[in-house]
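Input/output pair, single chain:
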Amino acid sequence: MLKQIPHFEILETFAAEASQLFVILSDAERWPADSIARVLVVRDPGYVQVAFHDRSRASIEVVSLGFGKCEVKVTHELLPDAEAVTEQKKAWRKMFTRLRGQVER
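Output:
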């Protein structure tokens, strides 16, 4: 029997231009200080893949919705267990709150 590899998707809408979010998300040095991510792939427009210390990774897609709005979709995969899924969902929500403070004025 194959073991399920825990993963999740999370979607968030921002009142900001997609380019603003893309610039931040594609540069790990612009992430909050307590985020431990390493950027693996950056493809313009709007795709970033990052890796974390637990060997999980996340694909991030930033899509313009027009009129100064955008959507960020995170697919986080290769998590070790369901507890890690819960913790990473909390971490992404916290990240989105911080990002919102940076780009929404």
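The radius of gyration is 14 Å. The chain has one domain: 8-103.
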